Amino acid sequence: xxxxxxxxxxxxxxxxxxxxxxxxxxxxxxxxxxxxxxxxxxxxxxxxxxxxxxxxxxxxxxxxxxxxxxxxxxxxxxxxxxxxxxxxxxxxxxxxxxxxxxxxxxxxxxxxxxxxxxxxxxxxxxxxxxxxxxxxxxxxxxxxxxxxxxxxxxxxxxxxxxxxxxxxxxxxxxxxxxxxxxxxxxxxxxxxxxxxxxxxxxxxxxxxxxxxxxxxxxxxxxxxxxxxxxxxxxxxxxxxxxxxxxxxxxxxxxxxxxxxxxxxxxxxxxxxxxxxxxxxxxxxxxxxxxxxxxxxxxxxxxxxxxxxxxxxxxx
Length: 315
What we know:
Helix content is 20%, strand content 35%. It has helices at residues 24-35, 65-69, 105-113, 136-141, 183-194, 219-226, 255-262, 272-275; strands at 12-18, 40-42, 50-58, 73-81, 83-85, 94-97, 117-121, 130-131, 134-135, 151-164, 169-177, 198-208, 211-212, 217-218, 250-253, 267-268, 281-286, 291-298, 301-307. Strands 1, 2, 3, 4, 7, 10, 11, 12, 13 and 14 form a ten-stranded mixed β-sheet that branches. A five-stranded mixed β-sheet has the order 15-17-18-19-16. Strands 5-6 form a two-stranded antiparallel sheet. The protein is globular, with a radius of gyration of 23 Å.
């Protein structure tokens, strides 16, 4: 017999501004306790060093978290050039120091251009990727290094925001990239090309999956707002269950169609091709506006792909 989950069965998406110095899972668990939620999951880890946009999906919205995991990301970061560390960030031990005072802003900007577009990137040892079921960062802490296959990612934009010369030169950059891109690897690779080594000293995710940092709220603000009150006082911060997929077109079904759709049956609907083309994925709603799930358009029918439980949602 399955153990009953502790907490409220709430649904929706919280846009959290992850604080510095805590893991994404720690931030998730803190938010889960504040909302007294039975089920929650985050949508893409941020290192303890990193801050910024961390969407957290509660309840039924976890069914659509993959859309956020797969989305493009935007970061602002500071790279230190002239110093290579064990972890690729400021938390690691210094492996090598090189005088970077000869670097200039044009030279750094020129080097950055070769990383635009599709590139092969080797994931760092200090990452959550697994080898034989073991996270790489755990192996790295034991001094074990394993071979990692390069993965193709795409750097859509790579802008130099500021340059501060010196023995340890610093650059502020903005990166717009596809999923799976490691900013620490970008710092290391840039330092390698310039011949001085490099690491990340500051990192912030500013955008992911249509959500940006201006929409986020901190754990501190949530804690202050709740105080000694009930968890329900925070529910107004939750976006609708379908927020991760609100870029998809929508289809509204009548009462009969909604009934059969909820049962997992494809539904014929004359309005379906107004929402998209054959094979497109769409959001499906009933006449009252309740979100029912996602479907694909198949020969004029709305074919269910992921249904949500029939209960109140944060909308």
